[in-house]
Amino acid sequence: MKQQLQPEVILEQAEKFFNKQNFQLAKKMFEQYPYGLLDSAVTEKITKCNIEINRARAKTLLKKSKKLFKKHKNLAALELLKEAYELSGDDAIKQRIDAIAGREQASQEQQNARQAATDGNYTLAAELYKKLFTSESNLTLFICLLFNTIQTESGVRKVKHLLKKHGELLGDYSLLTEPQAYQLGYIYYKIGKFATTSKLWQPLARQDASFIEQKNVILALWEHQLFKNSHSVKKAPAFTDEVNELLIYKPSKTIMALQQLEQIKQAEELFQQQKYRAALKLLLPFPNKMSKELFCLYAGIYYHIVKYADDVTAIEVVTLCELWQNAIYNPLLSGIRYQTPAELADAELKNRRELIKINSQYKTFIEYYLNIINNSLQHLKQLFSEPQYHEFTLTPFVAMLLGKTQQLATIYREQLAAAKLADTELLPNNNVPLIYCNEIQQTVYHSFYDPRKLTDNQQLIAASKGNQLCEQLYLNLAIMAYCTSDSRGFEQFLLKTGKQFYSDELFEVMLKLLVPDELKLPYLIAIDKIIAPAMKKSKNSLFCKRCSEYSLQKIMLQYEDNLKKSAVLSNELKSIFVKLNEDIPKAYMCIFEGAEVEEIAVAFGQRNIQRASKIAQESVFDEVKDFFFLQIGDIVRMVVHDGAREDVLSVATKFYPHCRRVDPEHEITLMLEHIPYDALLKMKVN
Amino acid sequence: MNPYQILKLDRDADKKAIIKATAQAMRAREFSAREIAIAQKTLLNQGKRVNNIFKHVDFSAVIDNFSITPPVKPITDCLDAPLKF
Lengths: 686, 85
Known about the structure:
The complex is a heterodimer of chains A (686) and B (85).
Chain A: H1 7-19, H2 23-32, H3 40-70, H4 74-88, H5 91-118, H6 122-132, H7 136-149, H8 153-166, H9 178-190, H10 194-201, H11 209-230, H12 239-249, H13 253-272, H14 276-283, H15 292-308, H16 314-329, H17 331-334, H18 341-358, H19 363-383, H20 396-401, H21 405-418, H22 434-449, H23 458-464, H24 468-483, H25 487-497, H26 504-511, H27 517-537, H28 541-558, H29 560-565, H30 567-579, H31 589-605, H32 609-618, H33 622-642, H34 645-662, H35 667-673, H36 677-685
Helix pairs in contact in A: 1-2, 2-3, 3-4, 4-5, 5-6, 7-9, 9-10, 10-11, 11-12, 12-13, 13-14, 14-15, 15-16, 16-18, 16-19, 18-19, 22-24, 22-25, 27-28, 27-30, 30-31, 31-32, 31-33, 32-33, 32-34, 33-34, 34-35
Chain B: H1 3-7, H2 15-28, H3 33-44, H4 46-55, H5 59-64
Helix pairs in contact in B: 2-3
């Protein structure tokens, strides 16, 4: 029989265990203590024993849970952690529980997402993955999933569908790592999206031969795909963008041709919207070789520009004239064969009227230019009378468009030899042959668009320097370009190629056109000095007169302020009017008057009374003379007011001869005259 | 209205073809007799024909006759297996 211990002994034993921190045994002893004898101290110690026992237990549970985690028995370990938390109430354990629970949940969700994708429930899979995309690892996971799925035949369809619906989940491709970009690119290759594969692979840094080979094959597949799609009626809106993009990586002939075709289609849309210049811009520069259909297309677009556009330029008019006239004379371009010379003449006349009608601003210029072209074409028509040469009845400009320049030149020289004609016999003035003039002309013209086109005619160009007919042609173009504010085109042309076409003297003058406005005027006037005589020699005197008149008037309007400031310049301008036997328009008289007044003021400022009086004397304007005397009067009044008698006499002596020269009857002259000279002479002697 | 479209003719149609096309257009009655007559007159008048070529711009003639050399489809053996990155 167990002997019952006395309460004092129980307490003593319990205290002993408690002090040794053996809380289990201490608690056991305290539990044997009679309940009626418990006091607060003992109760407190019992509470403490419970806490410590729980803590110890929690610690044991933590150790056990760690072991379970190592064995990947996460759920069981989690349970132990929860129990430990209940026992200890430790916040650190709570945080750990939350982190592990979150990871477990994510893992489960990944598992669920994977399962959903495998089952074909793509909507659910996408939603679950969307939630998971909080870290790079999930993006990699998604790409890996797609990558693995794509390897099978049925997987291709599944991935295609998934990417089509939820491709945006991949976000910005630029944030992908290199392995991700490669894998994704391979996925897109497998589903036939070669453009996307190329975009993903091109930026990758890897340079080994196997990857480069893969990249090149992808570009070739992309090219082949675009070519196939180009024939389909309904194309994706991005087709044109893709063509332009592929051209950067693979500038093949096929792709360049595709781009050109797309540009023609876009030009058609713009044309239908009546945006003719925008349509033309897409089709420039002219291609190296042009088909008959393309030739007619260009001619039609130029027709609409010259007829309907604002601020038509000289270049556009010239191009239109060239294209239309060549079409009349050349049956291969128009498809029309004239049976008799009368029919051809009638067609030419109708065409001329039509061209003149569509733009009255350029009426005279068009007539003039058409004469030049027709002379050339008629000459060729006579020379190329045999049927096999009919296709070469072309001006050199159009021959170049059609890629027939060399053939034309060769056949031309052969026919000349056969006709036993020397080059120089073909022109009325026995100068450089017209065919060469036109070659140069078309080269000049073409260089307005693209100076790189100047290649083959360097010797001819050099030979034409100083030739009056050629210079006349260039000046025509330059005048019209300048007068119609096509100055930008003219400027570019002059800077890059002008020296080859103009004589040195003329080139230097033309170059000065490029200096700032206030300095241009003298050079514009100098140009007119050269233009006027050249124009006078032309048969079309109406054109010469109008051209020269227009340019002078333009100068005067533009540089009115400069003219007013410079008597020298205005005098030069006056002399040009004199040369042209024209009266100075009354409206411009004030400009010349203003210039003289200004000059007089400057002379007085420099105390050059002689010069001032000379200007006043030669001026035809009363106002200028009046201004001179006004200045004299002001000076005399000032001297009389402030100066001594001797000063007055000195000024009077100095001014009188000049005043007398300008106007002996003027009141100021008379006033100066009546100052006693005898007194002045005496003063000097003394 | 483009006379070539009315008579359904190519640009290099000769006189015989124009007259034949006129008769066919009259039978088809897609356009009024007046329109057909004007189209015929325009095309028979050689001078006006040239002008008409350029007034009625035909993009489809260019697009339909635009030839592009087809590219060769490449061999894709190197893409059978993905590379290791």
